[in-house]
Amino acid sequence: MGEDAAHAEKPPHPGSELRPEKPASPSPAPSSTPSPSLHPGSTDEALRDHAQVNAVTVLTLLDKLVKMMDVVQENQHKMEQRQISLEGSVKGIQNDLTKLSKYQASTGNTVSKLLDKSRKVSAHTRAVRERLERQCAQVKRLESNHAQLLRRNHFKVLIFQVSAPTPTPHPPTPPPPPPPNPRSCRRSHS
Prior knowledge:
Elements: H1 2-9, H2 43-152, H3 182-189
Protein name: Caveolae associated protein 2a
Keywords: Coiled coil, Cytoplasm, Membrane
Main location: cytoplasm
């Protein structure tokens, strides 16, 4: 496009620069040639004037075309700059979205771990509560048994541990009888 604009700025003929230019009319000159009957002696002159008007009109149109091309190129350059800045913005947004998705994934993992831990703690708390309720029931039974034994005035205290087996009581063995005394045996026989 730049080459076209440079060629458009050059005049089409080297001698056209030396010709005096007539001001361009807002509308192009009529395409019909002036009739020779109106001006019998000036046919060549009229054709020359008409050719100059056409050349001026073409130059004016080329100037306008060059200006329009310059405006188009300038607008295109501005659009390219905007496109570059938009691409940079889009890349920044994509990077931010990537970071955000990574943070969201790590946050999701953390929340999942916290939920698992809270479930485990909840299950552990339920187990402890059940154990405490069982122990409470055992304590109440022991208290009621203890109260009954106190009313009867006959009770035994048993101490045991849940984790260790209770030992079975062995009856005490009586001491062996003393060996017979030979003297005492003789006296009884005599």
